[in-house]
Design goal:
By secondary structure, this protein is of the alpha+beta class. Helix content is 39%, strand content 26%. It has 3 helices and 4 strands, in the order H-H-H-E-E-E-E. A 4-stranded antiparallel beta sheet has the order 1-2-3-4.
């Protein structure tokens, strides 16, 4: 059986709106391909224990980068990224 981390890494997808949302919420200005690279890196670097499913969303909290990703558990579409305190 595949882990949630492996499944997310393989199936993650994006909408046009999410790129702008991630740039705005993280206060950065990256092109779409760099955002995708960053998200892939965060998923790969984060321990499986930091993946938490609540309702229809999966939260990936990377304490090193101080970023939390929110991903829809049904579509594997990234919803947003937030700064952690």
């Amino acid at each position: 059986m595949r882990s949630v981390k492996e499944e997310i890494a393989e199936k993650i997808c994006y909408t046009e709106l999410v790129y702008g949302r991630i740039n705005k919420k993280l206060n950065i200005e990256l092109p779409n391909n760099k955002i995708e690279e960053m998200v892939r890196s965060i998923i790969n670097e984060t321990e499986e224990s930091a993946f938490q499913q609540k309702g229809k969303n999966i939260y990936v909290a990377n304490k090193t980068r101080k970023i939390r990703l929110t991903i829809n558990s049904n579509t594997f579409r990234i919803i947003t990224a937030d700064k952690l305190k």
